[in-house]
Amino acid sequence: MLNAKFENDVKGERVADGLESKVEKGWLPSVAPAGYLNTMYKEKGKNTIIKDQERFDLVRKMWDLMLTGAYTVPEILEIANNQWNYRSIKRKKSGGKPISKSGLYDIFSNPFYYGYFRYKGQLRKGEHPKMVTKKEFNSVQEILSRKLKRKPKTHVHLYTGLIHCAECGCAITATHKEKHYPKTGNIGIYDYYHCSKRKPHVKCKQKSITLLDLEEQIIELVSSIEIPIEFRDWAVKYLTEKSKTESETSLQILESKQKEYKRLEKQLADLLTMRMNNEISSEEYLDIKVEVKAKRDELKDELSADEQNREAYLKKIEDVFNFATSVRERFENGGLTVKREILSLLGQNLMLNNRKLCIDLEKPFLIFKEGKNPEYVKNRRLEPVDLVAVTAKYGVSEPTDSTWLPRVDSNHQPTG
């Protein structure tokens, strides 16, 4: 009996050591979360975590919806399960089911998705591929916190929380009013957007604007950034080729980083040899190891980020251009969440000034808008050179502005 207990204790210690070893190497020693898979083909103790090719992009799309701030968790749950038909991995006795509400909250609060994991109460750096950046993760935590604090509303005001007052900086709020007309028996329903005037020592003079007038301005804005499908096809082709050229130009920088990474790896190996040969003390070994490992991990993050940026660049291009070809139709025919999402995607710093909606348009949308100005076209043409019909209609030069995707411009301007 004592022998059996001793054997169990030894096995337990070996398992614990194995888990610690796996954690030290940067691998979560448990089942991978949604969007990832545990490898099962390597020898015991050397399995890792990889992307689940069937679900990784779907889970990333859930993050994208959350990042817009236009969707609640239940709304994303509905889209993921019923529109995208998301189902968990099918196992012998479980899986193959839609994601649950608590499961979706777990995804949005799990640091695993930005490259870390929790183990024994500590946050450990992982070697698995990241799905989101730390900045995106923190943004979602802020969005979730705001949504949890909201009180139930009897009437939905579509654009509250997105727009601020240009005079005093307070948030724009909305008031729902119903007016009864005795002669006709009709009831007029009106939504007014106005400054919340939360600053007691500031006398804000801004007047309210009706929802109808506000949406007319938004429609005018989305119409100003719409582009023809022919231009989209040409631009995506042009920028794809340009991306290849720029990748070749940055190859030397990439190779330099890779060489530095290999040098740090060798330095760590040499350091271990020196310690084993008692050429340095244990304290010296640990101090130098921590410093070198930190440099190596930082460089590894840079290399990983470079790769992710290259992969995301072309997708971003297509998303932006596809959005701009149908944005007015989507806004006019879309539901509440679609309209809110579109407005939030157009830019930043939405302000109301004398009943005029102003916005810092995202760089590509600003260029689309300015591209319709004859003076801008004359000095900086965006039009294609290899599509005869489009060339005849829009111009003959290739783009001279190579910086317009996908940054934010600081030119704050009215929508009209």
How would the blueprint of this fold be written?
Elements: H1 2-24, E1 36-38, E2 49-51, H2 56-68, H3 73-83, H4 101-108, E3 116-119, E4 122-125, H5 134-149, E5 163-165, E6 172-181, E7 186-195, E8 209-210, H6 211-225, H7 229-249, H8 251-276, H9 282-333, H10 336-346, E9 347-353, E10 356-361, H11 363-370, H12 374-379, H13 388-394, E11 413-414
Parallel strand pairs: 5-9
Antiparallel strand pairs: 1-2, 3-4, 6-7, 7-8, 9-10, 10-11
Helix pairs in contact: 2-3, 6-9, 7-9, 8-9
Q: Gist?
A:
This protein has 13 helices and 11 strands. By secondary structure, it is α+β, with helices and mostly antiparallel strands.
Any descriptors?
416 residues; single chain; 13% strand; Hect, E3 ligase catalytic domain fold; alpha+beta; 11 strands; disordered N terminus; three-stranded antiparallel beta sheet; four-stranded mixed beta sheet
Describe the model.
The chain is an alpha+beta fold and 416 residues long. The chain has a domain at 19-150: Hect, E3 ligase catalytic domain fold (Alpha-Beta Complex), CATH 3.90.1750.20. The chain is built from 13 helices and eleven strands. The chain has helices at 2-24, 56-68, 73-83, 101-108, 134-149, 211-225, 229-249, 251-276, 282-333, 336-346, 363-370, 374-379, 388-394, and strands at residues 36-38, 49-51, 116-119, 122-125, 163-165, 172-181, 186-195, 209-210, 347-353, 356-361, 413-414. It has a four-stranded mixed sheet. A three-stranded antiparallel sheet has the order 6-7-8. Strands 1-2 form a two-stranded antiparallel ribbon.
